[in-house]
Amino acid sequence: MPLLIRNGRIITATDDYIADIYCEDQTITRIGKTVEAPPDADSRGMTTIDAAGKFVFPGFIDPHVHIHLPFMGTHAKDTYETASKAALIGGTTTLIEMICPARSDEPLAAFQLWKGKAEGKSACDFTFHMGVTRYDSAAESQLREIVKAGLSSFKIFLAYKGAFGVDDTELFHTLKLAKQLGVIVTAHCENAELVSELQKQLLSEGKTGPQWHESSRPESVEAEGVHHLMTFAEQFGTHIYIVHTSCKPAVQQALMARERGANVWIETLIQYLLLDKTDAERPDFEGSKFVMSPPLRDKRNQRYLWDGLNSGAISTIATDHAPFDFKGQKEMGRDDFTKIPNGIPSLEDRVNLFYTHGVKAGRINLHRFVYAASTQAAKLFGLFPRKGTIAVGSDADLVIYDPAYRGRISASSHHINIDYSAFEGWEIEGRPHAVTVRGQVQVKEGKFVGDATKGKFLTREPNHF
Ligand SMILES: [Zn+2]
Fold it and tell me: By CB distance 3.0 to 4.6 Å, which of 110, 253, 329, 346 could disulfide with 319?
């Protein structure tokens, strides 16, 4: 059905102008000062949205999400039914989920399993990074199949050895294969052995609460992980995307590799920009709500991360959404912080928090906002210009954003399936007035109003040769 958006202030990574947008057959077909819809558009059920006084952004992309996630003896709480609607309500129209098989799982079976959890159940579009959690000849041939089937990015873990982590020999071969296939490798960089020894040491000293999580994975451990990974990647020239970079020393290691000529991009998370390690010190085990890895850091890093987003040194902002309830799940680590399931869910709130504390607070301009939360992820992961911009021919994924909205975040009103919010009571200054996926209005005024199965699996071609 046709869609006409009138008089919006269109913001992309590079442009800022007022115009009408007309969409048909899932794509943007015309953009102009005044667009006249075809005479039969009304009889075909055209939707018209008055966007005067509002921004029109390209649909936002969260490039790092977990939905189906068996982890630390439990499962993350969201399903595609809950997560995709929550994503859309928050302005995210495409999400990229991490496929995280156990070492003993076969990659192709894992790909089918994760895809099966999403297909026909998602309200927003989706694709995956393929976790490489074991490397041998059987895994290699299956990874080649998976790339042919439309995934063009891998995920590797230097942390979580024994669960998802690969050893250095496997790392070597994974990076070599990725370069050969033109696949970008996303990577969790922390030295697993060092983390494990520090955890044991802290526990033996009776330091068992969530406030010790950060001390078990200090900034230097993350920086070492980045340096370690880049040393391997530079042997082949493999393109690297460092996920959830939390602190200045880790960013600096990536930038030093970039200076040496490496192709490396950096992701940070909304949590690192706004929360800090004192949140994990909250009493009565409330600190467990703020446990993720890498951990929330000393606040002094935040300015550096904002500056990095501003200058483009840091490419993207994601969430690493991994929802575990406080009751029954986070509580598994009451006597031992190493047993607290890791994750600070924020899929639904990323865009509004980034807008409020970035754009409204004067830390970042509108173009950088769109670039970091949408355009750059689309480019890196083979979705541009289909996603990530507003142009004729692009998918009609649009966020009509109301900068006059004022509200508060709360677990009592959010749509993700979890019993707490790390941002409980935080004010937001702006939210999506309407959100479309390929021309269909999916969200209006904070409510899901669309087609719960509209979302499609997005196939992607390798673009990192
Ligand atoms: Zn993750």
Answer: 346
Q: What spacing in Å lies between the alpha carbon of 157 and ligand 1's midpoint? A: 9
CA of 179 to the centre of ligand 1 (A): 22
CA of 173 to the centre of ligand 1 (A): 22
- Residue 213, Ramachandran bin (φ over 0: left; ψ between -120 and 50: alpha; else beta): alpha
Can you read off the two tokens belonging to residue 140? 């290699």
CA of 98 to the centre of ligand 1 (A): 7
Cβ neighbours of residue 272 closer than 8 Å, sequence gap 6 or more:
244, 245, 246, 247, 296, 297, 301, 302, 305
List pLDDT tens digits, range 99-109.
999 999 999 99
Owner of token pair 């950096």: 266
Average pLDDT over residues 420-435: 98
The string of pLDDT tens digits covering residues 271-305 is 999 999 999 999 999 999 999 999 999 999 999 99
Query: What is the band of 395 on the pLDDT scale with cuts at 50, 70, 90?
Result: very high
Q: Residue holding tokens 């994601």?
A: 318
Check residue 433 and report its DSSP letter: E
CA-nearest of 54, 75, 2 to 328 is: 75
Measured in Å, residue 206 CA sits from the centre of ligand 1 at 29
- If pLDDT is split at 50, 70 and 90, which confidence band does 227 have? very high
Confidence (pTM): 0.98
55 CA to centre of ligand 1 in angstroms: 30
Q: CB within 5 A of ion ligand 1: which residues?
A: 320
Buried b (16+ CB within 10 A) or exposed e, 21-48: bbbbebbbbbbeeeeebeeebeeeebbe
Distance in Å, CA 287 to ligand 1 centroid: 20
Q: How confident is the model at residue 71 (pLDDT cuts 50, 70, 90)?
A: confident
